[in-house]
Records
---
Amino acid sequence: MGQAEPATESSWQTPPTPGWPALRGLMPANVRIGSAVDGKLLATDERYRSELAAQFNAVTAENAMKWVNLEPSPGVYDWSESDQVVKFAQANGQAVYGHTLLWHSSVPAWVSESWPRERIRELLRQHITTVVSRYRGKIWAWDVVNEVLAEDGSLRDSLWLRKLGPGYIADAFRWAHEADPDARLFINDYGTEGRGRKANGLLRLVRELRMAGVPVHGVGFQSHLRWDRAPEDATGNLRRFAALGVSVAITELDVRIQLPVDAEKLLDQALLYQHMLKACLAVSTCESVTLWGFTDTSSWISSHYPGFGAACVFDSDIRPKPAHEALVQELTSRRGTPPG
Ligand code: XIL
């Protein structure tokens, strides 16, 4: 067992798969390596479960903790899938990253914009309090708000902004903090990995929230990337967020390839995975790198980006791709070197 393994390792139930190295055994002790978890495969596929346990020391529920799935009808919560994810993580010495309390794309259909402001505010408060309280002490970090920015860096036009005004963001963080004072609270977004207008807007927002004493502890960079485009100065960008006194994390890394796949594209993809890992490891407050799924079987890419696929580090037969090897090589070459 590598020295970077957490003490909880003794609680493993699933032995690591032989044949290729486990990322979790190679990570520096203070940085987690995670994957999004597909609830269906977790319940049905033993090979999926065992590789997930072997490779990662953190997990994020890909969909199970989203509001739309947790509360299908008013006041009626279905915890079955999210509890399964937490249970699996605990059994395998993995930390759970909570995703997400508030996302414009996952508002239950029964929530109506015609309701008065106070009713909507109270509904949001209750939702956040209910979910965070249930998992108090079991979830190390929450994406409190997800994708609240527009492409130009201003606040996204959403039900929450229209009904509650910009203060809903600070409220959400305060309610989450009350419900679990020990959880790390993140603001998460996409298209902010590199320097640009949206990242500038996020930087301004985080600075304002921190100055107002809002308990924002970290910034998550989703990192849904294309194989042929690296973000503009990802390391420098992460550093300017860290300089605000917050943690940073790569929260949803995947690198989609325009089909058909070929060897050169797989190599470019591998380099981009490695590049994002390096960017995180170059920032002393980068807490984790999470892959948005680890096998091409379960990736969201083919259904959301027609013509693209093969975005993960394992293929659809759960065999490692060059991207997995690149991560392993990067980590192996750093073993014994002090964090940057
Ligand atoms: C995606 C899931 O991967 C899909 O299965 C689901 O259909 C839609 O949501 N940004 C996020 C994630 O914050 O929650 C999204 O996950 C991907 C984009």
Note: Residues 263-281 form the longest helix (19 residues).
---
Amino acid sequence: MTQKQGMTIAIDGPAASGKTTVGKKLADLLNYLFLDTGCMYRAATLAALKNDIDVHDETAVTEHAKTIDLIINSTDLVEDGRLYTVLLNGEDVTWDIRTPAVDANVSQVSKYLGVRNEMVKRQREYGRKGNVIMVGRDIGTIVLPDAPLKLYITATAEERAQRRWQDRQMQGHEASFDIILEDVIRRDNIDSQRKHSPLKPAADAIEIDTTQQSVDLIIKQIMTMIQEKQEVH
Ligand code: CDP
């Protein structure tokens, strides 16, 4: 497809909805920058855990989050299935941010306004140049409210847990489907009920239910939407 002009695409949705897979494939096709903001909240959580900071201590978690050096890099990747590399204070934590310990605590850390403000500031820096696909929970509502294309990607909790279970198997980790399903539902509840930037579709977001739909088909649908937007602008 010939690019007429760059645009910003905001993708939100609940846990393990496939938004990262879809966003990354789209970014590769369009040659856009890709940013999965979930990895930033995960890294802030890992940083707190590594430093023995109680995740319920809002002030300590927030102050620490402000100090972390976080680099997310999608080029020159180690070929181990990663979509991007996350460096936390120079250390490669790409897989360490996906452990059950981080899953269990990330939604608590993500509730804090100070943590969110810090991460949103860093995310908007990435978004400033345009030609970016940003994925998260509050991208269309808070981080990039002017994005011309906003998508809200969902699937049933069972299907999302199934996909996450398969990911874990492929990464060589033993995982229980029931525990993953429980975690997905628990995080969705916290994320959608929190006071600051709760998970919800932006008023002008297009909802895509990916239950029993292939990634290729979803990508095709979104590429058509992008073409339509570019014809209008
Ligand atoms: O990959 P998965 O969908 O399981 O989660 P993630 O996108 O890596 O996000 C992990 C957690 O970070 C979420 O459950 C939210 O608590 C938080 N998050 C957020 O609050 N805001 C964002 N923009 C992205 C993630």
Note: The radius of gyration is 17 Å.
